[in-house]
Design a protein that fits this description.
The complex is a heterodimer of chains A (280) and B (250).
Chain A lengths: L2 H34 L5 H5 L11 H32 L4 H15 L2 H15 L6 H25 L3 H9 L4 H30 L2 H4 L21 H10 L6 H32 L3
Helix pairs in contact in A: 1-11, 3-6, 3-8, 4-6, 5-6, 6-8, 7-8, 8-11, 10-11
Chain B lengths: L3 E10 L2 E11 L4 E5 L6 H8 L9 E9 L2 E2 L7 H7 E4 L10 H11 L8 H11 L3 H4 L12 H14 L4 E5 L7 H14 L4 E5 L3 H7 L2 E6 L2 E7 H6 L4 H7 L5
Parallel strand pairs in B: 3-8, 3-9, 6-7, 7-8
Antiparallel strand pairs in B: 1-2, 1-4, 4-5, 9-10
Helix pairs in contact in B: 3-4, 3-6, 4-6, 6-7
Classes of the chains: A mainly alpha (280), B alpha/beta (250).
Chain lengths: 280, 250
């Protein structure tokens, strides 16, 4: 076959593959939107469920927001600090290698395992009960590997010469990290945060036993209260309650997807603003 | 006595010996050039003087380096103080991605060297001593990355001056610059020589001949010859030096 033709065929293959990759995403959005939009109303978004499968989803929206926010508040500081340590300070030794191995493995653990772990540690052993707090901690452990890995990668991508200049001026290691490394890694770290927001807000299994309420028509009053959450609510409505219209499930789906997109959008805009200011 | 004295200096990257028994004395307030072909260890030697080599894992150093008579490789040596005293200008102009002003102020801030009110004056003085002030006076708060390569390098020199060093190490400071820009930097070096001890590593022999008072020639980790620049270039004592400066290899 002549090389030009072969090249054309390869190009087409590559192109079709990338099309195929985005097709499911496109279809998912299309159907969720098409079916979901029918039940979306101001009332649906702002009222509590009157009975299971009827009424609004307001407590679930708020619950998911709380869980996501709490998870970010716990996992981001912890993950970023650990990432900085691993990338900038840790010497290559057995302990470091173990920690790195643990992080990689943590990322591969099925989410239901986190749920059971959270039940054992936070709900029962630490007596937090099934609560917002337990849920946030459980989700945090789940997203920690994402934050740590993103932080490490972002720091590694900052050119070594930035550190050299700062150190050559007599700056301490911490000053160097604080002023000459972290500002440039911020975008990458934020990418990790965005990923973990998506993960934390969408997972059902980790909050199944630790935080999510089956039916709770009011908002949580403290961090020791249970909360409703969109993914779990969706699961319940779709599988546990007989006689609920299908489109209600789609409606909940749509709300969840839009919520995640909105949160991500805020993070993306922040990242854009920061990148615009600090160029190199 | 010399400002910087190296005594029986051996330096290893893991198993590779990069410097072999170096002995030299760098005079105060003069320009000392270190020349030699790529990989001869000249940058390694330079980076021993402010201990930048410490950043690399698996290095080992034997012997001593005295600055003002004090061994900088003593266990209780203050690394931050050393690097403040011995500044460095790098091969590629590398200003921080900050404003021109912030680039100079950086060193003052990390060392807490000046009151907030005094900083603008010091920044201007530093920029002035590298003849950059007039070119950038009206845009001190714009990004330093918008400057030309040569301006960037002068900014980097000014940034070094801001922390009041006594020695300035220059690691091929002109290799990224065109001949005209190179000339300007060299003129600047001549001025700075009044107040600072300058050590410059260069693979450009003409540059060494033009700017330096004393020259060392290195080859394969050894300091082959060290002496007055004029002597090295007119009456080299070693056959290898002669071969190198006459362009027979390198």
């Amino acid at each position: 076959m002549n090389p030009k033709r072969r090249q054309k065929i390869v190009f087409s293959l590559l192109f079709i593959s990338s099309l195929l990759v985005i097709t499911p995403i496109f279809l998912i959005f299309f159907f969720i939107f098409k079916e979901g939009i029918k039940v979306i109303s101001w009332e649906f978004l702002t009222t509590s469920p009157a009975r299971m499968g009827g009424g609004g989803v307001f407590p679930a929206i708020v619950g998911t927001l709380y869980l996501t926010l709490g998870t970010v508040l716990i996992s981001v500081p912890l993950g970023v600090l650990a990432g900085i340590y691993l990338s900038e300070y840790a010497k290559e030794n057995l302990l470091t290698r173990l920690v790195k191995l643990a992080i990689i493995n943590l990322a591969g653990v099925p989410s239901i395992v986190y749920g059971l772990f959270g039940l054992g540690l936070f709900v029962i052993f630490l007596r937090f009960g099934a609560s917002l707090l337990s849920g946030c901690f459980t989700l945090s452990i789940m997203v920690l590997p994402i934050v740590i890995t993103a932080t490490k990668e972002a720091l590694n991508n900052v050119p070594q010469s930035f550190r050299e200049v700062s150190l050559s001026l007599g700056a301490t290691k911490w000053q160097t990290i604080r002023y000459c490394v972290l500002p440039y890694a911020f975008g990458g770290i934020l990418t990790g945060v965005i990923l973990s927001i998506g993960r934390a807000s969408g997972e059902t299994a980790p909050i199944l036993f630790t935080a999510a309420a089956f039916y709770l028509p009011h908002l949580p009053r403290s961090i020791f209260d249970q909360v409703m959450a969109l993914p779990y609510h969706l699961y319940v409505v779709a599988t546990q309650v007989p006689g609920v219209e299908r489109r209600v499930s789609y409606g909940i789906c749509l709300v969840l997807v839009v919520l995640v997109i909105l949160i991500d959008l805020i993070a993306l805009i922040t990242r854009y603003q920061i990148r615009k200011k600090k160029l190199w | 006595m010399g400002k910087i004295i190296a005594k029986n200096l051996d330096f290893y990257y893991k198993d590779f010996q990069a410097l072999k028994n170096i002995n030299l004395e760098i005079s105060e307030k003069k320009i000392t050039a270190i020349i030699g072909p790529s990989g001869c260890g000249k940058s390694t030697l330079l980076r021993c003087f402010n201990r930048m080599n410490d950043l690399i894992e698996g290095i080992r150093l034997e012997g001593e380096i005295l600055i003002d008579g004090v061994n900088i490789y003593r266990d209780d040596s203050d690394l931050l103080f050393l690097r403040k005293k011995v500044g460095m200008v790098f091969q590629r102009p590398n200003p921080f991605a900050l404003s021109i002003y912030e680039n100079i102020a950086f060193g003052l801030k990390i060392h807490n060297m000046a009151k907030r009110k005094e900083i603008p004056k010091i920044v201007e003085d530093c920029l002035n001593s590298v003849h950059l002030l007039d070119e950038v006076r009206d845009r001190l708060n714009t990004s330093a990355l918008k400057l030309s390569l040569e301006q960037k390098q002068r900014l980097c020199i000014a940034r070094t001056l801001a922390v009041k060093p006594e020695v300035i190490l220059m690691d091929e400071p002109c290799s990224a610059l065109d001949p005209l820009a190179t000339l300007k930097i060299e003129e600047l070096m001549q001025e700075l020589r009044k107040d600072y001890t300058i050590v410059i590593v260069t693979h450009n022999m003409q540059q060494a001949a033009r700017v330096s008072d004393e020259t060392g020639f290195m080859l394969l980790g050894e300091l082959v010859e060290f002496g007055k620049t004029q002597d090295i270039f007119t009456r080299p004592g070693d056959k290898r030096t002669e071969d190198y400066i006459t362009g027979r290899f390198g």
